[in-house]
Amino acid sequence: MIPLMHSPASHAPHNAVWSPPPEEEKNYIKLDQKYLVANRASDFSIYLFVPTRRRFVLFKSEGEPIRPEQLESLTSGGRRPVYVPVEHSTALTYYLSENLTGIVEDASLPLEVKTEEVHTLALTVMKNLFDSPPDMGEFIATATNVSHALADLLTASPLSIGMLNRLRSYDYCTYRHSLNVSVMGVGLFLHLHPGASAVAIHDLTRGLLLHDIGKCDVPRELTNKPGRLTDAEWQIMRSHPIKGYKRLEHDKALSQESHQIALFHHEAVDGSGYPKGIRKNTIPLTSRLCKVVDVYDALTSNRSYKLRMNAFDALVLMTRDMKTQIDQDLLKEFILFLDRMGKLIVRRPL
Ligand SMILES: [Fe+2]
Ligand SMILES: [Fe+2]
């Protein structure tokens, strides 16, 4: 898990005596106390590191909510980290996903700060889900918290779409790619349907966020392989749409079309895609939309075997070389959307 502690402890000298020994610290996730909310159920325990005793001390047991006076006692000592045992990381990840709604609804936060906080926390949650997938119910519940918060932010503050795009990292990995595809895909959808209902936007956001969930069932050596896949490995990788759909198909909370994004996002309008080889409008609109942003994000991200393309070259390739595979009407709208976000430099770099 990404340690969610950005600043050093303000009350203590920053040296080895005051820091936990690395061999013990590795058993804990370091967390900024600002992520703790009083009275909310939390299925993880919390420890503090006591420098004078050179050991971790239990602060709150698993299953107990944090009482307001406990939270107060943490804050009164200055801002310092708390520690959660690594074996409680799934519960912590869910808890952090619940924080996202609070951040989005916090009217006191300037939009840039709010967007940055949502970005950091959403990436952490998605990384944890893909690195150590919990059972499917927990996975979907946690991702749903992320997608709801994201959908609410993007709908209430369209400027946040451009801000999130600026915060985008260009190093490809599944959890970052999932967030990028979700943000750009919802942005494109809102560009096409500005009056879309909240239900439709929530539905799409989660469908896009989970479009590559099937990669959890592909061996890690393939998804993380530093280099091109062999033909045999590529065949295994191509199974992720069906594997993803199988994970989602029994989830009743969202629409069938949203689940189908996982199944159909690698189909091509000329029938050359996979897994079914269906064509044109038999591919649902949201899956065709996902393909546009999916390909764009993959081309404009650094891969282990290839440096990223700039936006212009990626769009030329998608318009020219992938003309028969990608829905060109949607691609034209995507280019207009990118232009509107001010992110597209329509000229070749010098
Ligand atoms: Fe995919
Ligand atoms: Fe993808």
Characterise this structure:
By secondary structure, the protein is mostly helical. 51% of the residues lie in helices and 6% in strands. The protein has a two-stranded antiparallel ribbon with strand order 1-4. Residues 212, 240, 265-266 line the site of one fe (ii) ion.
In short:
The protein has helices at residues 22-25, 68-76, 89-105, 111-131, 136-156, 159-167, 174-192, 198-209, 220-223, 231-237, 240-248, 256-264, 285-299, 311-320, 328-340, and strands at residues 28-32, 46-50, 55-60, 81-85. It is mainly alpha-helical and 350 residues long.
Low-confidence stretches: 6-14, 345-350
Structural class, judged by helices and strands? mainly alpha
One letter per element, helices H and strands E, the order comes to HEEEHEHHHHHHHHHHHHH
Mean pLDDT across residues? 90
Report the sheet-strand fraction.
5-15%
Count of distinct strands: 4
Main β-sheet: number of strands, strand sense, barrel status? 2 strands, antiparallel
Question: What best-fitting shape do the alpha-carbon axes yield?
Answer: globular
Q: Treating each run of at least 4 consecutive H or I residues as one helix, how many helices?
A: 15
Helix share, percent: 40-55%
**Order of strands, widest sheet:** 1-4
Calculate Rg over CA atoms: 22 Å
Bound molecules: fe (ii) ion
Q: What is the end-to-end distance?
A: 40 Å
Oligomeric form of this entry?
Answer: single chain
